Amino acid sequence: MGTENTSSANTPPRPVATPFAAPQSTPFSSSRPVAGPAASAFRPTPGLAPQTAVPLSSSGPVVGSEASGYRPMPPGRYSGPSVPPPPSSYGPTAGGPFPRFPTPQFPSTTQAPPRTLPVGQPVLPSHPAGQVSSMTASISPLPQIPSVPMGFPPQSISSVPSSVNAPPSSIESSFFSSRPNLQPWSPPMGPSYPAARGTFQPALPGYPGRQPNTESASFLGHQGGYEPPRAVSAPFVSHQGGYVPPPPLGAPQGFYPRGQMQPPGSAPPTGAVQGLIEDFSSLSFGSVPGSFDPGLDSKALPRPLEGDVEPSSFAEMYPMNCNARFLRLTTSAIPSSQSLVSRWHLPLGAVVCPLAEAPLGEEVPVVNFGTTGIIRCRRCRTYVNPYVTFTDGGRKWRCNICALLNDVSGDYFAHLDASGRRIDLDQRPELIKGSVEFIAPAEHMVRPPMPPVYVFLIDVSISAVRSGMLESSLTQPQMMVVSDLDDIFIPLPDDLLVNLSESRTVVDAFLESLPTMFQDNVNVESAFGPALKAAFMIVSQLGGKLLIFQNTLPSLGVGRLRLRGDDIRVYETDKEHVLRIPEDPFYKQMAADFTKYQIAVNVYAFSDKYTDIASLGTLAKYTGGQVYYYPSFHSAIQKEKLRHELTRDLTRETAWEAIMRVRCGKGVRFTSYHGNFMLRSTDLLALPAVDCDKAYAMQLCLEDTLLTTQTVYFQVALLYTSSSGERRFRVHTAAAPVVTELGEMYRQADTGAIMSLFSRLAIEKSLSYKLEEARNSVQQRIVKALREYRNLYAVQHRVGSRMIFPESLRFFILYGLALCKSAPIRGGYADVQLDERCVAGYTMMALPVKRLLKLLYPNFMRIDEYLLQISLQADEFENVCKRLPLTAESLDSRGLYIYDDGFRLVIWFGRMLSPDIAKNLLGEEFATDYSRVTLCDRDNDMSRKLMRILKKLTETDQSYYQLTHLVRQGEQPREGFFLLSNLVEDQAGGVNGYLEWILQIHRQIQQNA
Amino acid sequence: MAWEPILWVIFLVMTMVLVASNMYQLVCLSDLEADYMNPYETSSRVNAVIVPEMVLHGVFCFVLFVTGHWIMFLITLPIGCYNMMLFMKRKHLIDVTEVFRSLNSEKKNRIAKLGFYVILFALVIIRLVLSVMNHIIDEDDAVHESAMF
């Protein structure tokens, strides 16, 4: 099945290829597409065709392999000129071609020779007749024209320069037209880019049809289907003939399309620009690589100013896949062999956010099979999904994951139409959508669905009273009070939990009395552990959610914690990580027990002093909860934030008593999982409560050395109880092609998913090693990955001192830097408070991809101009205010800026900002200390506008409340804390800035290249 | 009385218990891996025998030392130290929340220990047999001597 899919996807390019079939043997199919376009351009030289045909066929197999693997060609190939077989044919070429082709196209042909030489020759040595094949080979790997000249055999070189710019516009155009469905491709390359892409496609390694062994079969199929293209091919053949004598020449033609970044007729490509023609991106450094004057404009570095871009090619290839918001693979091309995996130095895996919020109109359809029962594979328990195939007249279906033939039950039977599709397809969302929900029958319940229970555990020690934490207005509470420490008992087990709607007044009254009740409390101790146990006893029957409001370090009873983390000497030693893991095994044990009884724990920590979040957070980590942190909480300032986040916590759609499993096709296996959950068995995640703000990452490995299938399917299944008391499955299915080429894996890489996995791995590493090592490991992996990529292309492309990286990973380096500067692994003792570090760690372990990327590289915008323009409305805000690079250079002391990382908003007032603006926004307080000023509607246009902007920004990301901080330029240390330390591109505290970071990575890549 | 053979019989029982304890833990871990048991049960079962096993090993070492079986003592000492180290670091118990992450290393660890104890078991048996033989020979000698006079 996989084959069919892929072939159809690729078909556009193929037509060109078909023509070939007639003259030559099938193996060449891969090369043809490229040749085709070129061929058309070269019609004038038909006569020679016959000769070529034979040689070509012999070389065919080679071509196939080459095409499939984008790998760097072995150096030996370069020797092109010297290669024995080619020379003979070649000789004529160098001198000959020019004279020979007086025809109008001549210019183009001439060019070809020079370029092709490097390419074509590689093939030649073994297969003299390999022109055609060489073309293919060259096509994919050698996008870069610029590099070519360097490699030439002396003879051809001389001709090169002149020919280079000949770019036959006609070729390009023809090329284009022949492939109507080029997939959208990122634009950086300009006009030439699409062309390049086109060439690439045909050669895509991963596609079943392309591979040498399968090739002939697929080829035949195409032939039948694609008759029309033949006409095109015919020219090609003839053209080929013309080129026969100079085998290398053929290759060049293929090249052309690529090379032509420039519009036809433009001047010959200059080296640096040309690099971009590639299917990779590159950064050119000055003549001295790594020198401090890198010749690199820091403004030109890639920056994700558009935010996260989900990879689209994947979704297009498999339109029935679930949306990327639910499941993202780190690369949408699964490697076919262990050796490929080991050369892919980035994490291979997926990030799953099973309950991601779907926009209106894209809700996940709910399917109720009723008495039929849910349709699942007998053997591997896969749920029915769009990729299963029905056979035998609709009486059987084949599981796409384990390939077992299952019977279709009578109730589910439907006839198949002529194309083998079920006739009731459009009424079966589970067969056309990648994401569905099934109503689970009773056998999937261990017990009847429980009502959602929320238990609040509130710290009433003196610091809590003082901070005003108790005044916070809780929205839907149920409560209990624990008074005994050593021998905990529960006074009235049944009556402690109250039904909110029935006893709302009691609850309200209690909450109101809470502050007064403890008004005179001078107790500084907190008996957290015993309280936790009591809470556990209360809810263990029902499960539910436990919200812990903690203001001080637990100091009494079991689970008491010491003040640690103050000891600066521990840092930079091997014991440093101990501070970041729970001190007392009690917490881990409690967490495990909570999970066992389906209790999720959310920790709200308020203290300005050390509260040992590392220990408390463990409760949230293993119960699928999360940690909220309000450092130096004061109700006047942070009330709104607490209210918003608490409300969100209580009211967002929550799945209770959930378990999640990810199934995947034969040959691959998920080996490790990362996030806030507990593993119930090797591949089963226990999640007492899940919601849309939680994502889970996992890594894959291959079980066998070689994958034989052409497509790998993934199915995420989440079994949960909805808040309405219904047991449901949520199933997301996705397919990904298996590829044999490293280049393709890089091309299909998803920076967001990779960063998500990366950050989780780094944070986990920081729990058992020094921070420094966590950062180094990030850097090392980036270097390794890019070095591997460089090796892939360096040989054929004359990369020189340029730094190359795949288009798909162009922001990867920056995100890597941002990760190293993110709170969980940044700096050392003094850079981030221990508690804050731990909170950030726990938070990032659960963040969905988009929010993580926003946190790593926040939005940064200048808004004063927008505020001054009266005519503009709030909805135009997005258009007017562009995101700026996160560097101090973006700051203008006359401006007003907003920094938004999804967790807080910082408004930066430049020193020279017109007082009008400040006055309008802040009223009379504009000159005072900004830490005490709050923004509110000041009843003037500008202020209203600003408030609208803020509202809009907060609305786009509901999961956290972005408290607004005002900062004035030069107001230390607030400015440094809120803004300057977060400008990730700047050099700060001995840590690299973006440019230095890139240079450093570049140097390391080259060191062992 | 034949103290020596009796001592070796006691050692034999001890080694058997150690072997059995390791086998048991290994089976629990394999069950966990094969999803026959949940992590809570596995870790509580395994953790329940870990400390007794360590204590037993310690006693074993100590008795060997006291009774002057130096070579055997030296053979068992490294594992005793290793246990001690784990205990001091409070890493001797299985962490229920992260069982799966440490599953492989824990299993390998136990397989190695099991191998060690099996070898130890063989050694103890040999020594037991030797001591019994010696004892019999001694008695024979004694009989002979008494007969001679």
UniProtKB/TrEMBL annotation, chain A:
Cross-referenced InterPro entries: ADF-H/Gelsolin-like_dom_sf, Beta-sandwich_Sec23_24, Gelsolin-like_dom, Gelsolin-like_dom_sf, Sec23/24_helical_dom, Sec23/24_helical_dom_sf, Sec23/24_trunk_dom, SEC23_SEC24_subfamily
Domain Gelsolin-like: 883-949
Domain Sec23/Sec24 helical: from-to ranges: 750-853
Keyword check for Ribosomal protein: no
Bias kind Low complexity: ranges: 54-65
A GO-annotated cellular component: endoplasmic reticulum exit site
Biased composition (Polar residues): 1-11, 23-32
All residue ranges annotated as the Sec23/Sec24 trunk domain in the record: 470-649
Single GO term (MF): SNARE binding
Classification via Gene3D superfamilies: Sec23/Sec24 helical domain (1.20.120.730), Severin (3.40.20.10), von Willebrand factor, type A domain (3.40.50.410), Zn-finger domain of Sec23/24 (2.30.30.380)
Domain Zinc finger Sec23/Sec24-type positions: 374-412
Major site of localization recorded for this protein: cytoplasm
Region annotation (Disordered) ranges: 1-134
Gene Ontology BP annotations: COPII-coated vesicle cargo loading; intracellular protein transport
UniProt keyword terms in alphabetical order: Cytoplasm, Endoplasmic reticulum, ER-Golgi transport, Golgi apparatus, Membrane, Protein transport, Transport
Record has Ligase as a keyword: no
UniProt domain Sec23/Sec24 beta-sandwich: residue ranges: 655-739
Subcellular location field: Cytoplasm; Endoplasmic reticulum membrane; Golgi apparatus membrane
Family the entry assigns: Belongs to the SEC23/SEC24 family. SEC24 subfamily.
Name of the featured protein: Protein transport protein Sec24-like At3g07100
Species whose genome carries this gene: Escallonia rubra
TrEMBL record, chain B:
GO biological process: one example: vesicle-mediated transport
Primary subcellular site in the record, as a coarse category: membrane
Subcellular location: Membrane
Topology versus the membrane: Multi-pass membrane protein
Coiled coil: none
Keyword Membrane: yes
Regions that span the bilayer: 7-27, 54-82, 114-137
Swiss-Prot/TrEMBL keywords: Membrane, Transmembrane, Transmembrane helix
Pfam name, any one: Cornichon
Cellular component aspect of the GO annotation: membrane
Homology family: Belongs to the cornichon family.
Name of protein: Cornichon
Organism of derivation: Escallonia rubra
Lineage: Eukaryota, Viridiplantae, Streptophyta, Embryophyta, Tracheophyta
